[in-house]
Specification:
Blueprint (H helix, E strand, L loop, with lengths): L1 H21 L7 E7 L5 H15 L3 E8 L10 H14 L1 E6 H6 L12 E3 L2 H10 L3 E4 L1
Parallel strand pairs: 1-2, 1-5, 2-3, 3-4
Keywords: Signal
InterPro entries: DsrEFH-like (IPR027396)
Organism: Oceanihabitans sediminis
Amino acid sequence: MKKYIFSFLFLITLFASANLKAQEVDFNKNNYVVLTKKVPQLQPIILAAEALKAEDGDSFGDFQVVICGKEIGAITDKEIMRKHIKRAQNVGVKLIACGFSLNKFNVDKSKVPTELKIIENGILHNLQLQKQGYKSITL
């Protein structure tokens, strides 16, 4: 019985340490996360990312935009999203959709552009990034 308990604890420790390594953050870089509820705000957010990238130079790190809230269905408009996605990719901005919001507001996940990563809970993701030292703003 002890053998199983120790094996179980070893596996938990192994997976926990692997998970931490996967989430390592380069603290020598400026990392950013923006939580937004409106797709039209993507344009000024991406403009800000472009300016920060130019300003930070080699210190520019990760930049994530989490889209959540009742207007999340707007991300399924391919015409509107196409220009935001292209510009975000050029700057290195990661666009993320909140799965909780998609579910709550009955948005068909198959219509979300494949370039957007869907995460389970956008607010939790934002808070976890803040714990890792990301600079954060909510719009």
